[in-house]
C-alpha cells in the first residue's frame, strides 16, 4: 500500500516536472533572472502545485492517512540559522545550474553527462551536510 | 505546442496531486531533497519499508518522463556544459537543502500550501539568493 502510493506519487511528480518544463534549466534561470529575459512559467507551476496541496492539507483535518500512521505535526513556528543559511546556499546552487533536486532526478534519463555530474555532486553535498550542520551549530552559541 | 504557462499550470497541478497522494496516502510530506537525502546519508535507510518507499518514489520520478517522451516531445535541459559550475551548483544544492531541511517541493509546494512560516521564509530566501546569484554570475561575471 505504502509502496503503491510512493510509486504513484513519484510518477505524478515526474510527469508534472516534465510537462511543466521545469526540467529545462532555461525556464528556472529565466524565472530568477528578473533583470534579463524574465520567464514567469515557474510561478504558474508553483501556483498550480499549491492548489491541490491546499485541498489535501484541509482534508487531513477529517481523516487519517490511508496507509495508516499519523499526518505530520503542525509546522514549527520558529526560524533558525540552518533554515536561512541552507536556503541561501540552495538558492545559489539552484540559480547556478537551473536545477533543484526533483527536476534533476526527473531529467536524469535525458540530461546527459551534465545532469549526471549535477546529481552526483548533489549527493556528495548531501553526504557532507550532517558535518556542516554540526559545525554550524557549534560555531555560535545557540540563541 | 501549448503556450508555456498552460503547460506549467497543468504540470504544476500534477505536482500538487503527487504531493496530495503522498500526504493523504502515506501521511508524509513530499520533499525531493529529503527523500534523496535520507537515502544518501543513511537516515532513510535504517527502516527497510521507509527505504523502499523512497526508492520506489524516485524510480517513478525518473521513469515517467521516459514514458512520456514519445508524446510530449524531445526534451532538452539546456544545462550548462561548464563542469565546474555544475559541481559547485550540485554541492550547494545538496548541502543547502539538507541544512534547510527542504527544497522547492518540501518548503515551496508542501510548506506554502499549509501556510508554514518556515516554508514561506525558506522560499523567500532561496528565491532572493537565486535572483542575486543570477545578477552576479550572469550580468556581472557572465559565467552562466
UniProtKB/TrEMBL annotation, chain A:
Keywords: Membrane, Transmembrane, Transmembrane helix. The chain crosses the membrane at residues 41-60, 81-99, 105-129. The lineage of its organism: Bacteria, Pseudomonadati, Pseudomonadota, Alphaproteobacteria, Rhodobacterales. It comes from the Bacteria. It holds the Pfam family DUF6691. This is Membrane protein.
UniProtKB/TrEMBL annotation, chain B:
It is found in: Cell inner membrane. The chain crosses the membrane at residues 6-25, 55-73, 79-100, 120-141. It is a multi-pass membrane protein. It holds the Pfam family Sulf_transp. Keywords: Cell inner membrane, Cell membrane, Membrane, Transmembrane, Transmembrane helix, Transport. GO terms for cellular component: plasma membrane. Its main location: membrane. Belongs to the TsuA/YedE (TC 9.B.102) family. This is Uncharacterized protein. It comes from Pseudooceanicola atlanticus.
Amino acid at each position: 500500500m505504502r509502496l503503491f502510493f510512493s510509486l504513484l506519487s513519484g510518477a505524478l511528480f515526474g510527469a508534472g516536472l516534465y510537462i511543466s518544463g521545469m526540467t529545462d534549466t532555461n525556464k528556472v534561470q529565466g524565472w530568477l533572472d528578473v533583470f534579463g529575459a524574465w520567464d514567469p512559467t515557474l510561478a504558474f507551476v508553483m501556483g498550480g502545485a499549491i492548489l491541490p496541496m491546499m485541498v489535501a492539507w484541509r482534508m487531513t483535518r477529517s481523516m487519517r492517512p490511508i496507509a495508516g500512521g499519523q499526518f505530520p505535526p503542525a509546522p514549527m513556528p520558529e526560524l533558525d540559522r540552518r533554515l536561512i543559511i541552507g536556503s541561501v546556499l540552495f538558492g545559489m546552487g539552484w540559480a547556478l545550474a537551473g536545477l533543484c533536486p526533483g527536476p534533476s532526478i526527473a531529467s536524469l534519463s535525458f540530461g546527459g553527462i551534465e545532469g549526471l555530474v549535477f546529481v552526483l555532486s548533489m549527493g556528495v553535498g548531501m553526504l557532507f551536510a550532517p558535518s556542516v550542520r554540526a559545525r554550524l551549530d557549534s560555531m555560535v552559541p545557540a540563541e | 505546442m501549448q503556450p508555456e504557462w498552460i503547460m506549467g499550470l497543468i504540470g504544476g497541478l500534477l505536482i500538487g496531486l503527487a504531493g496530495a497522494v503522498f500526504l493523504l496516502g502515506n501521511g508524509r510530506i513530499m520533499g525531493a531533497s529529503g527523500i534523496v537525502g535520507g537515502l544518501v546519508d543513511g537516515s532513510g535507510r535504517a527502516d527497510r519499508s521507509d527505504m523502499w518507499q523512497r526508492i520506489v518514489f524516485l524510480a517513478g520520478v525518473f521513469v515517467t518522463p521516459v514514458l512520456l517522451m514519445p508524446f510530449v516531445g524531445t526534451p532538452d535541459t539546456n544545462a550548462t556544459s561548464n563542469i565546474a559550475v555544475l559541481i559547485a551548483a550540485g554541492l550547494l544544492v545538496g548541502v543547502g537543502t539538507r541544512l534547510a531541511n527542504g527544497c522547492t517541493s518540501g518548503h515551496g509546494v508542501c510548506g506554502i500550501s499549509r501556510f508554514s512560516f518556515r516554508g514561506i521564509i525558506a522560499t523567500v530566501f532561496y528565491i532572493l539568493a537565486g535572483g542575486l546569484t543570477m545578477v552576479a554570475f550572469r550580468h556581472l561575471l557572465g559565467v552562466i
